[in-house]
Amino acid sequence: MKALLIVAHGSRRAASNDEVRELTARIRNLAGERFGQVDCAFLELAEPSIPDGIECCVRNGADEVVVLPYFLSAGRHVISDIPGEVEGKQQEYPDVNIHIVPYLGSAETIPELMLQLAS
Fold first, then answer.
1. Which Pfam families does this UniProt record tie to the protein (predicted)?
2. For residue range 38-82, what is the model confidence (pLDDT) as tens digits?
3. Which residues, 6+ apart, have CB-to-CB distance to 79 below 8 Å?
4. Cα–Cα dist 21/42, whole Å
5. What's the pLDDT score for residue 118?
6. Residue of 14, 67, 7, 69 lying closest to 41 (CA atoms)
């Protein structure tokens, strides 16, 4: 089973974390059968953590976990912190393909989306 784990920073503001959870639910509904599981996790300040999110996917039968960073730029979190969190779980589960896809801000469609929002 292929799982999608959307990784956000996390916030002290509960409503911000709830926004990520709501977005995740919308993605889950849109994904159809592309993913057997779609969940979110947080780098800090909210639960579940990235390792806990990956653990949940594996325990639910995922043999592939796609980690999608919900970040707009390639700062320290995208370049080192998230890969560090993922690496530990990959070592724990060598038979599970756990991989990070490009962060949201790198998507070619972002400029068009921003123009749509500004119109």
1. CbiX (PF01903)
2. 999 999 999 999 999 999 999 999 999 999 999 999 999 999 999
3. none
4. 10
5. 96
6. 7
| Tokens linked to 5 | 């784990």
Convert the chain into a string of H (helix), E (strand) and C (coil). CEEEEEEECCCCCHHHHHHHHHHHHHHHHHHCCCCCEEEEEECCCCCCEHHHHHHHHHHCCCCEEEEEECCCCCCHHHHHHHHHHHHHHHHHCCCCEEEECCCHHHCCCHHHHHHHHHC
Output phi, psi for 38, to 5 deg: -130, 115
Is residue 41 a contact partner of residue 71, using CB atoms and an 8 Å limit? no
pLDDT recorded at residue 15:
98
Hey, what domains does the chain have and what are their CATH numbers? 2-118 (3.40.50.1400)
How far is it, in rounded angstroms, from Cα 81 to Cα 10? Answer: 13
Mean pLDDT (the chain, rounded): 97
Q: What are phi and psi of 95, to 5 degrees?
A: -85, -5
Locate 9 and state its tokens: 């920073």
